[in-house]
Specification:
By secondary structure, the chain is of the alpha/beta class. The protein is 44% helix and 14% strand. A hairpin with a 5-residue loop joins strand 7 and strand 8 (134-142).
Length: 296
Amino acid sequence: MTGHEAGTNPGYDAIVLAGGAAERLGGADKPGVSIGGRALLDRVLTACRGAGRTVVVGGRRATVRPVRWVRETPPGGGPLAALDAGVREASAGTVMVLAADLPFIGDATVRRLIEALDRSGREAALLTDGEGRDQPLVAAYRTEPLRRELALIATEHGRLAGLPLRLLTHELEVVRISAGPLDSFDCDTWGDIATARARIREHGHVLDEWITAVKAELGIELDVDTGVLLDLARDAAHGVARPAAPLTTFLVGYAAAKSGAAGPEAVAEAARKAAALAERWAAEASGAGEKGEAGS
């Protein structure tokens, strides 16, 4: 079970499809391929961490958080068979469906799809890529219509295994949401994986990627203002000594944890105090403090 299952249901379950033969990767274990130090599957599981229940269709493996494991019938039977296996385990009225090879999918996109489904009153909210193509494996569905369509397809064709995914949405009432630049980027080839690995190291992305990876590794879900901490590190490095920067930010985090307060406000308050101290330290070093005292 996931950590959410014991508490209140947040409104949706997640189904992550992590099977397939990965033929264009030479049969490699695609969900386990590392992007930015995190397995592809773990990156997707982080994006849907708000789900009440998370069902992963595929072979068992270590994951960043607990999930329910199921297999499609037959194993390797394709996305419709995998969806059928996953939705049988869902209990919420809405399911978020994601492929396990989306390195840049984020919780903001998951929320957009869930909210679009709720507002529209439709049966599915699909992401569309930059060329306007539907992405049925980056989508939110109402659970019962999804089950209905899968049952109808199975009845019409006598099976689900091996059938194309495009059959799923023909009869569903759909609202479409445009993807961000990387929301629907998937890793089908080693070239795609190389592109993803290079992308996260670009100047505009590397810091956010690193902080997200560290929080996932340490099991931290706290959102903090990284700008505040970076400013503090800069002030400590310039006003005191360069090694003071990492040590000060560590102590700020420790102080916030010990304060008994919860949330990013505790970090912000500890950072404010440390930043004020760094300013006083720097003022003394420059003589500004003494001049101020002499003039008073």
